[in-house]
Amino acid sequence: MKYVIVGCGRVGSQLAKLLAAEGHDVVVIDENPAAFKRLGVRFPGRVEVGTGIDYDVLKRAGAADADGFVAVTDGDNRNVMAALIAQRMFGIKKIVARIYDPPRGQLYRELGIETVCPTTMGAKVIRDRLLNMPFESTPSFDYGGISALSIIVPKDVAGTRVAELEQDARVKIAALRRGGRVVIPGNDVVLQEGDEIRAIVAPEALEQFSKRFATSAKAPVEIIS
Predict the structure, then answer these.
(1) What is the CA angle 109-59-47, rounded to 5?
(2) Which domain-ending residue is among 71, 92, 116?
(3) In a 3-state reduction of DSSP, which class is residue 150?
(4) 35-66: per-residue pLDDT in tens?
(5) How many Cβ atoms sit within 10 Å of the Cβ of residue 95?
(6) How far apart are CA 179 and CA 71, in angstroms?
(7) Which residue has the higher pLDDT, 81 or 140?
(8) Which of 83, 136, 164, 171 is the most buried (most CB within 10 A)?
């Protein structure tokens, strides 16, 4: 797969190295040539000096045949403008833009741009620490406060049916991992100790849902993509 990344800061450079290490074709764009030092001398991808809102720069970077596009500069407007150019002028289907202003997220999603907001992500992590939640909300969902949770089922919750955890329009158990197999569980599935469940929880149900696991040790967290 081929990916174009605009912005070679801490996040952009780390993402580029991760994707390259997985064998993907990666091109990184940045206005400052010195920024590419973050990639290291062994970076197997390609770099392009310029701005991500310049059509010619994106064309040279190979945006015309890119499978994915990421904009992670330090400016919301630049990220969204770059994302819109990638979407509308190059037809790239998978686009992610980093934004720092949470209210803008919904607007950009309506334009077909997936957003990641460090402000919202950081606030959720701090909230979880303050409230001593037995698990953490994963930050890949930023839709009006809805949380995506990853929880390892403890002994005292084993034997509970999925239907007992779910609430209409408030809590949904989206996936269950058991013995290396991942399924979408039906309401009658009985949870076992050590199962990993993925739950989508509305803000008004988060506190009540967390109480079901309040006596349990903190579960490992995995970001749901």
Answers:
(1) 95
(2) 116
(3) strand
(4) 999 999 999 999 999 999 999 999 999 999 99
(5) 23
(6) 37
(7) 81
(8) 83
